[in-house]
Amino acid sequence: MDFTKIFVGGEWREGRGGLTDSIDPADGSLVARRGVASVDDVDDAVAAGLQASADPEWRNMLPHQRARILARIGDAIEADVEAISALQTADTGKTRAETRALALSAAGTFRYFAAALETMDETLTSPRGSYLTMSVHEPIGVVGAITPWNSPIASDAQKIAPALAAGNAVVLKPAEWTSLVSLHLARLVEQQGLPRGLLSVLPGPGSVIGDAIVRHRGVGKILFTGGTTTGRRIAAVAAEKLMPVSLELGGKSPTIVLEDADMDQAIAGILFGIFSSSGQSCIAGSRLFVDRSIYDAFVPRLVERAAALRIGPGTSTETQVAPLVSTIHRDQVAAHVERALAAGATLLCGGEAPSGPEFDQGAYYRPTILAGVPNDAVICQEEIFGPVLVVLPFDGEEDLVAQANDTVFGLAAGIWSRDFPRAYRLARRLEAGTVWVNTYKQFSISTPFGGWKESGLGVEKGRDGIRAHMRQKSIYLGLDSHPLPWA
Ligand code: NAP
Asked: Fewer C-beta within 10 Å: the chain N or C terminus?
């Protein structure tokens, strides 16, 4: 595929922002030259989106007809899963198993919203006079979607599918480091009968292209996934426009091991929760709280298993920990660890890039576990977005809840315990949008997902995901044939 062209209002054209390189983080090689959008391209994409979303062909398309297009997109993604997976592994470094799962999840997302759309109802409300009242939902028009680099096709789908289902047009700005799969997705979408102009994909720097989309007067809502700092900036611009935003932001999620947990199950879940995706996951369980009574028995076992995880390129079926997205990001992760060690943390494993010719050109970093710092240490409070876990002991439930909730974030949490009533009680006390008990990092598109506190605003997924991209309207239909008495 030619990645030098970008998708503007249904037309493949050279981006007016020039060209850039997409680099494979496994070995530093060039994956593709890729087009970059300009602010003029944003103007064109929004204009095309406004026109296409207002066009009776789309505006009056019946829900089941729109649903068929979405379902076809889902099928097309699934049929192309190997190509998407290979492309995404080259662009992000992730393992093929993970990129395959992300592609299949994207296919499922389109099908889910197709089904939800077909079964969505409008409501009649109780009248208080001689009229019939109904509450209906209308599209917003053009929705801007801005996504991060960690799970490109899945986060693209989570925004595009419900927004299209709602009858909008979408202008998508993928992350600079990982735009290729979003352009590939645009090709698939285009072939499934979506009317022209309803989707644009504009790769380009967030501070220019993302910002232009957010500020554009023609854009009626922003769906954003990314860091809390960027989310706050977008929310400030949106406040000026009085524009709704949905923000899926960062996290520093606590994982909790109670003294009665199944140790093998907990260790496997904790390793998966923090070190899969090389820790580049918003919901990574990056703070581990272990009951002090089992701390000395549990932590060495965990460390031994973490140190034995297999590091390698995403293309190898043996690999558990693949490279990070770029050497720039890897070096940022390493700097976090260096600062923590300088501040007194104890290194239990990792703390460096692996050495050897197979790693030298890649963005690798060893699974790292730190201890010996209090929960208010910087390393326990800042999101690192890499394979770095901090272990902390706790003494009793009150101490645990206080420490676990002592963070600006509130995205997710995990609990490992055989005592379900206790785990449930604890789950209700944790300040987090999602809590897993005896499992971690599992997702269903039918289950709403969103962050509390500085982890976000609004929720995605679930049946209400379509309504979140619509405007509600109440209609009163008078039933009297007489004039209103006042006049
Ligand atoms: P980021 O730096 O905030 O970037 C996210 C997206 O926003 C990118 O496309 C970026 O473009 C764009 N952007 C940057 N500045 C912008 C601006 N001023 N206006 C509009 N758009 C702008 O985040 P990231 O480093 O890509 O992703 C990692 C973060 O995402 C982590 O904090 C992680 O926790 C969070 N995340 C959250 C969830 C969730 O569901 N809660 C899921 C995944 C990731 P560029 O690529 O050009 O910078």
From this structure: C
Question: What string of DSSP letters covers 232-299?
Answer: HHHHHHHHHHT--EEEE-----EEEE-TTS-HHHHHHHHHHHHHGGGG--TT---EEEEEHHHHHHHH
Three-class SS of residue 30? Answer: strand
Q: How far is the CA of 209 from the centre of ligand 1 (A)?
A: 13
- Best probe residue, ligand 1, of 276, 282, 329 (max atoms within 8 Å of C-beta): 282
Across 76-87, b (16+ Cβ under 10 Å) vs e yields bbbebbeebbeb
Domains present along the chain, CATH in parentheses: 5-249+455-474 (3.40.605.10), 254-437 (3.40.309.10)
- pLDDT per residue over 145-190, tens digit each? 999 999 999 999 999 999 999 999 999 999 999 999 999 999 999 9
Q: Which residues line ligand 1 (CB under 6 A)?
A: 146-150, 173, 175-176, 205-207, 210-211, 214, 225-227, 230, 233-234, 248-251, 282, 383, 385, 411, 451, 456
Which residues, including other chains, have CB under 8 Å from residue 128's CB and lie 6 or more apart?
A: none
This prediction has a pTM of: 0.97
User: To the nearest whole number, what is the mean pLDDT of the chain?
Assistant: 97
Q: Which residues are catalytic?
A: 248, 282
Cα 203 to ligand 1 centroid, rounded to whole Å: 13
203-236 pLDDT per residue, tens: 999 999 999 999 999 999 999 999 999 999 999 9
Task: Determine which residue's CA is closest to atom 20 belonging to ligand 1.
Answer: 210
Query: What mean pLDDT is predicted for residues 440-468?
Result: 96
Nearest CA to ligand 1 atom 43: 282
Which pLDDT does position 231 carry in this prediction? 98
* Å from CA of 397 to ligand 1 middle: 35
CB atoms within 10 A of CB 344: 10
Q: How far is CA 288 from CA 7, 245, 254, 399, 442, in A?
A: 43, 32, 6, 14, 18
Give the tens place of pLDDT for each residue, 260-278: 999 999 999 999 999 999 9
Contact 389, 286 (CB under 8 A): yes
Is pLDDT of 1 > 90?
no
